[in-house]
Please model this.
Amino acid sequence: MFTHFKTALLEDGILLAGFDYSGKSVNVLNGESLTEWQGLVGHCERDTGITGVVLMSLKDGNFCAGADLTQMHDAQQRGSFQDIEQLVITAHDVFDAMGRSVKPYVAAVEGACLGGGLELALACHARVASTHPKTCFALPEVKLGILPGFGGTQRLPRLIGLPAALEVVTTGKTIFPRQALRMGLIDGMVASIPSSVRSPESMRNETLVQAAIAQVRVRRSAPLRRRPLRASQRFFSAPLIRSLVCRYARGQVVKRVRRFYPAPLRAIDAMQKGMGLGIREASLHIEKPLLMDLMAGRISAHLVGLFLAGEEVKRNAAAVPASATSVAVLGAGLMGSQIAGQLAEKGYPVVMRDVSPDILAKAIGRIHHSQAAQVRKRIILPSDLRYRMMRIAPTTRIGDVAGAPLVIEAVSERLDVKRAVLAEFESRAGAEAIFATNTSSYTLTDIAAQAVHKERCVGLHFFNPVAKMPLVEIVRAPFTSDRALAQACGVAKRLGKFPLVVNDGPGFLVNRILSRYLAEAVIMVGEGVAIRRIDAAAKDFGMAVDSGRPMGPLELLDLIGLRTALHVLTSLTVLGSRIESRNALLHSLLPDGKAPVSFWESGKVNPRAVETIAAYRRACPSEADPPSEEIIRKRLFLPMVDEAVRCLHDRIVEQPWQVDFALVYGIGFPAFRGGLLTWARETTLPGQIARDLESLAATYGKRFEPCSGLSNGGW
Model:
């Protein structure tokens, strides 16, 4: 009898082992579950009546989420890792026993198979996966500042070849079933309808389980031997070639994330050195020491903390499940079309309304192009693309959105337009329909000022690009009902986003803090500081490095769009003189009737921008001395700390960790630093930031004057 596994023995001796971690919504590997699995494997080896094992999950949509990160985070907080080290040794012992067994172990994978869960599946003799929408594979440990520690750096390259394994491990990329089958990660793929009752007995006739049983029978009837490597895989296993391949992989890592993150480079070391040894020896003597060293570092502690913060965000969001069966999107511009595409991808029928048929046609084209990229990458089938596109109904008639229980407004950033759209919606909408605005520059209170049913209004602020940015700000005004808040959170969760609930206020949380960063960059440009120097200072700090595309503030302004940025910065001047947008300079980069003059063009500083800035400086000369690199960095980031503390004081959010989480996932603040406020606390003495800001204020102006909260350390 086991707590976390349920079993059923078939007539021909095949044991169905159902992983069902007690008390959690997902399966995790910790001391309890691994010890149980070790006992179960030992029992199977001793019992002559058992001839093979099918490992399956009894959790819907989750095979195994990997190691229990709460246990690891507690160890990092204590600075004591004996329990974790013993856990790793136990995993190596039981996985090695599985690999040496003459009885076949086959993993029937349905749902997410991540980290230690994938390493468990790799220890099996074969793997079969279903096409369940949530089925995917990944070794995301490098995103937590560590490396796969249950033998993943050793088993994966032996299974799929070194080059493919290096990419999977160093990027933490997600692999979907069709990709997994093509690269040899799994041995079979089937379409399977999950049983509503989750038990080994009830699931034995599922197509997936039957396919796994068939794999056991085939392997049981012949001596077990490891699948031979392909010729290309054998070629890359030669020591010299292996060294060259790993050197190239290191170059790719440095190109992508510089040297901010040690984990991908240590993972390459583990694979390169371990390939010449046996799996168990390499796992214990090469992989494990590297893992324990990384786990004890500050970077891993920060990344694990941020991951757990994301889980807290999901828990803190309203727990009422989303009852919206369909969604309408008002506005088919860039943001509206991205939101509609994401909704359709996650299964929502979408009505997309715009007053212009031409805009609607372009929106459908953008959505199709974006979704077709997944077909080209073989993530989905062409039929999946057709089904997604069929879920979107474009229309110019407001009456077509009347039946939608939730409407997301994404029209142009003009207050009068947004109020008019809300009034038009209320005149046609059902009695319970929710109105969610995607505004980035107006408060929810301003937009809903003339609404008849204010309680049904909520903010649903997505970030651009919608598909890649994981954060959504759920904006709550004093009048927003719990039901409206719950519906907005539910939709964000279904889209796979982090729904961070923030209170209403100018710029909400992320844009309000971001405005200080962007405005100061523009001011420095106007003083004559080179565009390249400003952006280099931010990239050297690590801004947006986690996206794979490091980006400075001026590059970010180009991405946002100078017109949009000017509008947002101007709207936030209501916060006081500390938000300076230098409208004259930005206006000069926005000539009437012409395209904006971007700071960068094709990866180089735009000569037109340099000319425009020079003309501005001749008209508005500045006497400021050229700042040092340290001063540039302080001018960019210390005002963000000041504004973050002001947001806490104004109760936009309640906790400092919420600020850290929002800026990492909303604007690309470097995750390895733990977040804005964590960085500020760890790198300066108490009160030092306030003193630095006072010094900047004496030199550059009152906008740097620190708030009182910075001096008293109440953050």
